[in-house]
Amino acid sequence: MEAVVRRRQRRFNFRGSLCIPYFVFMALFVVAPLAIIVYYAFTDQNGLISLESWKTVFTTAKNWQVIGQTVIISTISTILCILIAYPIAYILSNKKFNKNKVLVYIFLLPMWINFVIRTIGLKALINGATTFLFHFELTADYPLVAIVLGMVYDYLPFAILPLYNQMLKMDKNQIEAAADLGANPVQVFFKNIIPMTIPGIVSACMMTFMPTMSSYVIANKMSENTTSIIGNLVAYWFSESISPVSFNVGSVISLVMLMIIGITLLLEKTIGNKEENQKKGGIW
Amino acid sequence: MENNAMLINQEATNLALRRKARKAKIGKIAANAFIYFVLLLMYLPIIYITIFSFTDSPIAGKWVGFSFNNYAELFDLDVYESSMIWTAARNTALVAVTAAAISTILGTLGAIGIYYLRRRWKKNVLDFMTQIPVVNAEVVTAIALVALYEFISRFLFTIPLSFVTLVIGHVVISIPYVVLSVGPKLEQMDSSLYEAAMDLGATQTQALWKVVIPDILPGILSGFLLSITLSLDDYVVTVFNRPKNNGTFHTISTYVDSVTKRSALPTQLRAFTAILFVVILIVMIVMNVKSHRNSRENLKKEKKKND
Prior knowledge:
Helix content of chain A: over 70%
Number of strands of chain B: 0
CATH topology of chain A: MetI-like fold
Distance between the termini of chain B: 54 Å
Number of helices of chain A: 15
Largest sheet of chain A: none
CATH class of the largest domain in chain B: Mainly Alpha
Oligomer: heterodimer
Number of domains of chain B: 2
Structural class of chain B: mainly alpha
Radius of gyration of chain B: 28 Å
Largest interface: A-B, 87 and 93 residues
Distance between the termini of chain A: 47 Å
CATH superfamily of chain A: MetI-like
CATH superfamily of the largest domain in chain B: MetI-like
Helix content of chain B: over 70%
Strand content of chain A: under 5%
CATH topology of the largest domain in chain B: MetI-like fold
């Protein structure tokens, strides 16, 4: 009797079967759309296999300029975010400076106000400040600087959170031991604190680098629509005003974007401790 | 002679200690100064809008005397902008709650299923699928869905963009975070509890409902909140997947974007932002006070137990 029950249990994994609806949903709305993108990228408007769209994309000088521009903007924004977020996360996670979690919440609170409104507010503020002090409008005269400012402002909380979570897990005894054994603060920082927080740094980089490439609203607002990032290109080729033919070109640009993301992921895998990341269940 | 040396030694340690203490104090001040400076910078744009919500001038940055006009207009639904703002706000909330509910249910079931799968490769496939929307650029997620609908419309049957497609888009971007916040809770769970419930005569569904779900509830809740947060702030997915028939469907993001394309932030929207800011602030304070009180009560209880 028991053997029968057990065999039946082995045959049908009830708890495991609970993921079937999830699997179906993800297959339909995550995997299939990407497959369609690949299909569109390698066909022409008649559905025949062709590399015409790739040629169109890569022979247009403006696309190259936008791609380069995007990588530069995203890289600088990411570096700035990490440089600002790292000390903040360290201070917030350190019991010596911060005894409760309230400050952490205060840092995350702006995320609850719509980011378009916040970006508009930032734009009004810095334009007001620069006109008052130096008689020029930052968003009109230095759009790239303005975009980087906007990106850093919007994605700073996303960089703080993973770093903070990582630093809570840091072994404080090791830092003290290093200091007791004669390491000076600089050595402690570079040989202890940084290596212990590398998984946090990596996921903070991902959390800021990826969205800064795609969130074209911030770029539009902060540059008064004068400067484009890759996100703009993709959105442009898929916008309503253009005929479905352009799906092919848009798909190619999407694939280029996915390739850049793939390269960053590979870099992440080589730099970060892979096992550490998996254990933590990814990004947050 | 020996005494003297000891004295000097002691004085030296005292001095060193004092210097260390002073250094620590300076460090603390510097750390606090840095934290509050960055916080100020982060809040300045919101405070800026809030301040200029109390003046009538069409552009934020110009002060033309104190008034509550913007607030009065915001609650006067005959004003075109105000009615647009409230419709957008209602749409945003509707989409966020629907999408978050769906992704919480699907995602929780998914996480439980993934955790109990027996085959390693099945787990890996599902984990990989979960990671895709997280690492993928939001624009690509958004346009890929549009491409899918276009493709099906061309070859099988027409799929018009509607509220359903919009919600699907929002579920796609938020569902991985539900799975990622429930997953770790399942790993922390005491796995023998489920077996025990089964041994004591519970059916599998009962054991799931009465043992597993209550245990992972904190993860489910944080997944739900995360979904709502992501959905409220979304722009790209909304723009591409929103219903296209009878007028433009606006959420707060798309409304603010389209309105500021032509002009500055509408005066009523400044009042709206200020109210939103205050409401969020109050919710945050209440939540913190509550958790503070809870933790204090727990401490007291523990003390009593120990006595």
